[in-house]
Amino acid sequence: MNVGRVAGKVAIVTGAASGLGAATASMLAREGATVIVADINKTNGARVAARIVEAGHRAEFVEHDAGDEVSWQKLIQHVEKKYLHLDILVNNAGIMVAKSLADTSLEDFRRVSRVNVDGVFLGTKYAVDLMVRTAVPGTAPRGSIVNMSSFLGSYTMPNTTAYCASKGAVRILSKSVAVECGAKRYQIRVNSVHPGITRTEGAEALMPEESWQPGSSLMPSFPLRDYGRPDDVANAVLYLASDEARLVTGTELFVDGGWSMI
Ligand SMILES: NC(=O)c1ccc[n+]([C@@H]2O[C@H](COP(=O)([O-])OP(=O)(O)OC[C@H]3O[C@@H](n4cnc5c(N)ncnc54)[C@H](O)[C@@H]3O)[C@@H](O)[C@H]2O)c1
């Protein structure tokens, strides 16, 4: 029996081998979607997909480089051939370079942009195209695209130039496509999610262990005084991906303990 908040839907989650992507893929699958776990990391990606299947849900791993156009073409062709359509795309894959402006090389800047901006642009472009081509005749194309930005897509801190530039691009790219889809009378919704610092493999590599402890002097004094857990963000993605958010497009959903207010 296929029950859940995204029951029967087909979803791609990029960067799903780790952290927020893995949590999102698992949650969408638990809520009834068939999930394509896409990632550049074969070992971890295959493990995430296997775990979902062992739990009795639907998933498969597809090796995928989010910054590469041919890789997107292959992924979308695969989904079209096997599932005939796509309902949900979560453009989650992302990397961070934490360096001062002086230390950030043009190569660093382009490396971050390649995954964080090119990846979201390409994914959005090819997903909208598939949603339009496979729409039920006589009905408007439908679907939900959720792009992973960051609280650093709207606010900022030192040593984040390349990352902030990329996440700011994700924020406004999402709104631009949301407006364009609306102008074409598509029922394709495009939203961005803006996590604060959330404990994932990627974030642990950037922050020392002591900074994660409650009461740590590094813990910022934002309203809820806690860092995120991957499921906090996955829950936000699930909402935007589901039909519960049928009237929500072009929005920015912050999951940051209120950090962005101060
Ligand atoms: N964790 C946080 O504090 C935080 C806060 C705000 C935003 N984000 C954003 O959330 C997303 C996920 O972050 P995370 O903390 O889970 O990171 P993570 O490093 O734990 O996981 C990122 C995943 O992306 C994959 N990936 C990297 N380059 C790729 C590529 N070219 N193609 C396909 N996959 C690729 C990695 O293999 C990895 O599995 C990123 O976009 C990140 O910028 C994270």
Total DSSP helices: 7
Which class best fits the helix and strand makeup? alpha/beta
Which strand order spans the largest sheet, edge to edge or round the barrel? 3-2-1-4-5-6-7
* Quaternary structure: single chain
From the spread of the alpha carbons, the general shape counts as globular
Cα-to-Cα separation, first versus last residue: 46 Å
Q: Describe the main β-sheet briefly.
A: 7 strands, parallel
Question: Radius of gyration, Cα only, in angstroms?
Answer: 18 Å
Q: Order of SSEs, N→C?
A: EHEHEHEHEHEHHE
What is the strand content? 15-25%
Bound molecules: nicotinamide-adenine-dinucleotide
Mean pLDDT: 96
Give me the count of strands: 7
**Helix coverage percent:** 40-55%
What does the model show?
By secondary structure, this protein is α/β, with parallel strands linked by helices. It has 7 helices and 7 strands. Helix 5 (161-183) links the parallel strand 5 (142-148) and strand 6. Helix 1 packs parallel to helix 2, helix 3 packs parallel to helix 4 and helix 4 packs parallel to helix 5 (161-183). The site of nicotinamide-adenine-dinucleotide has 29 residues, from helix 1 and helix 6.
